[in-house]
UniProtKB/TrEMBL annotation:
<dbReference type="InterPro" id="IPR036188">
    <property type="entry name" value="FAD/NAD-bd_sf"/>
</dbReference>
<feature type="domain" description="FAD dependent oxidoreductase">
    <location>
        <begin position="2"/>
        <end position="351"/>
    </location>
</feature>
<dbReference type="InterPro" id="IPR006076">
    <property type="entry name" value="FAD-dep_OxRdtase"/>
</dbReference>
<keyword id="KW-0560">Oxidoreductase</keyword>
<dbReference type="GO" id="GO:0016491">
    <property type="term" value="F:oxidoreductase activity"/>
</dbReference>
<protein>
    <submittedName>
        <fullName>NAD(P)/FAD-dependent oxidoreductase</fullName>
        <ecNumber>1.-.-.-</ecNumber>
    </submittedName>
</protein>
<dbReference type="Pfam" id="PF01266">
    <property type="entry name" value="DAO"/>
</dbReference>
Amino acid sequence: MAIIGGGVAGLSLAAELAELDGRLVERSGGLRPELRIVLLERENQFGYHSTGRSISALSESLGSPEQRALTRASRTILDALGAESGTPLLRARPVVWVADADHLGALNALLTANPALRGVDPAAAQTLCPVLRPEATARAAVERTAQDVDVDALQQQYRDRATAAGAVLRTAIGLESGTWDPGRSAWTLTTDRGELEAGRIVDAAGPWADAVAARLGVPVAGLTSYRRTVAIATAERVGPAWPLVVDVADRFYFRPERGGLLVSPADETPSPPTDAEARPQDVSVAMERVAAATTLQLSRARTSWAGLRTFAPDRNPIVGPDPQQDGFFWFAGLGGTGIQTAPALARLAAAQLLGEPYEVADLRPEALLPRAQAQ
Ligand SMILES: Cc1cc2nc3c(=O)[nH]c(=O)nc-3n(C[C@H](O)[C@H](O)[C@H](O)COP(=O)(O)OP(=O)(O)OC[C@H]3O[C@@H](n4cnc5c(N)ncnc54)[C@H](O)[C@@H]3O)c2cc1C
């Protein structure tokens, strides 16, 4: 089995797949042949693209009902992985959702979608983040259960577990093309470092998932990538324990980071798959919007970056076998919630690939199948 892509999707799947396969081999008393798992990452390091550029938050209010169900399940997994390894992967950081007078409807929709949220007046929001300008916030909602995820530790843990369970993880090898031989039920894959054979391929190539499918002659899923910009602004008086503050109208978010303030214009600019870069005008917009919502003086951006968030047409992840091409499995379209949903998605995908049961509470896995996307 070849997994293409070494972001959080590919790494989490490699670990879950290799460990589940090990348990199945053991259960069979060694009668079941061990699965050979190879993960190919084109860049020189894992997590170089979307995964390495996220703001590493976990919020149970984000996304579709399916994404919220996957986030709840992933949170339990992340807690357990942290406890098992002795390195906690989650650290509490509340989210304060803010709405101006024109967007109270969006705030109410959020409160309905996540009963754990508590609606508060601007003064109560200010007790959590004292620099919020009361005239810019008509009402707010507090999500006490939100977390920061230690993405570096998470990736390292998945890499360690995958290799300990026998998976081979390789960087600096890009998939270029491949042909399916129905007689042998196997792919011959051509990479920039030579050929390899695989009975199945998992497309976990993030922004390039459609490009990978196209190179193998598989119909694309219709994914679109959008650029998102983040900067660390220099600011006085930033409290390290401030929450993540998110505008319900998707115009900005901010939180403390490394002695400065992490700011984003929450931009969503369509982009081809590429090594995304922050544009100065998007950084300026982020600083202006955050300055308008707060009493902070934001003097300059110390650093900035951008990354791609890749969505299927219905914005749900695509997980499952391709309906038209044997031997091709999708694990793509993780959108803006890939860090907080990958742990449960990887268990689901590993179970599907090995024909084992796995349930995520409140999730119909059919909603994620590639066929559902095409309809
Ligand atoms: C600014 C920003 C903020 C975000 N904040 C959050 C957040 O707070 N919480 C959250 O849950 N999510 C967040 N996300 C979303 C999250 O980062 C993504 O959903 C997730 O990282 C997607 O992971 P992936 O493995 O699918 O993609 P990627 O990390 O992009 O990995 C895909 C990999 O495939 C490789 N690849 C592509 N083509 C080939 C090929 N032909 N051969 C070999 N390898 C190939 C690429 O090099 C790449 O490394 C954010 C994203 C951005 C951009």
